[in-house]
Amino acid sequence: xxxxxxxxxxxxxxxxxxxxxxxxxxxxxxxxxxxxxxxxxxxxxxxxxxxxxxxxxxxxxxxxxxxxxxxxxxxxxxxxxxxxxxxxxxxxxx
Length: 94
Hints:
Elements: E1 3-10, H1 12-20, H2 24-34, E2 38-44, E3 51-56, H3 60-71, E4 76-83, H4 86-93
Antiparallel strand pairs: 1-3, 1-4, 2-3
């Protein structure tokens, strides 16, 4: 299944929600699964993004749907990127 990187920035509303209910993060992961993606790894980060998620999804359309659904709630902005394993990338170039 294709791999994607989701870079998340919390809005003020999202930061307040996480502060009051940190377990909300895991609830969102379950929602991602209901939308068709599997969270492979998740990291809280410092800097421009608050979270980095590595997810698997069947196709770009699934990631589009997730980005729109999550973004429409007003608590997070998501930057989505397809990710290719380096060995596959080298194979494409060979």
